[in-house]
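Chapter summary example.
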Amino acid sequence: MKAKSKNTLLAILLTLGITSCAQLAEMSAPSPVATEQTAAGAAEAGKFWAVFHGGKYEQIDELIESHDRIMVQEPNEPITVSHLAWLHAWKLSERSRITNPQAKIIENAFVAKRLFEKAVALKPDEARYLGFAATFNMAEASILDDEKEKRHGYYMMKKAVSMWPEFNLFTSGYVLSKNASDSSQFKEGLEQQWENLDVCFGEKVSRQGPSFQQYLSQETTQGPKRACWNSWIAPHNWEGFFLNFGDMLARSNDLQNAKVMYEAAKLSKTYQEWPYKEVAERRIASLNQLPSLLNRNPPEDPEFTSMINSKFSCMGCHQAIQTNAR
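The structure predicted for these 326 residues follows.
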């Protein structure tokens, strides 16, 4: 064998050896182990919920800083990790609250993705973490125009849906509602909202002017179906779900069903305390104009922005206090 050929072969073998060693080293590295919440972490969690339920968007940066301090001391505490991820997610999602937001706002998507992935590594059976990790995997991939990663996030979401359909069918459909209303992705997300009703109520719900009164007796705070109702975490989950569903149907020009969904929000026992009830009522009053209004990108009227792109894209379900709701 010629010397040049030997050298080439040796180089190939050396490269393969290094690659194999690198892969082996990575595969054999220990996974992070979740730690118990500390007293400092619990106190920080209390601050998180006070700000989140209060809709105090302006306090996000301060809370990110204090959460980061906890993370430095306890990097493997799942609740702090997930709450920090949510703060970055909220900062990005409701950026329309900011007058002329700077382009660096997109960096929150990158941080949220990494932190939700960390939360999944710490609690792999937590379907909510996986759904949010998938969401921000797709968000980051869209920003970076990375089709491979976008598909990875899409199928990650499929796994999250299979783990907890009552929760993640909404999460998935909500994410897909960002797309144009005539796109296949949007239509898939719309169907997932119907499927969400089916799994929540235990039967196939009518696709033509359904009634929801008969399902109210199923309300629960236990088990997987608790995601279908209002809870301490999401005090207006029911109202927010139907507001978004109405928006998606209106964008599809299905105004009959859109009105049904907006009206369904009123079935909630806490509807009168919902900070965004006036939004639903304006939708009903302007029903015939909604396909045009909600499909405009960018929107011309901030009062008629689809929920996913609005100032209340998170707070529509989670805000419990009416102060500064609009």
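To summarize the output: The mean pLDDT is 93.
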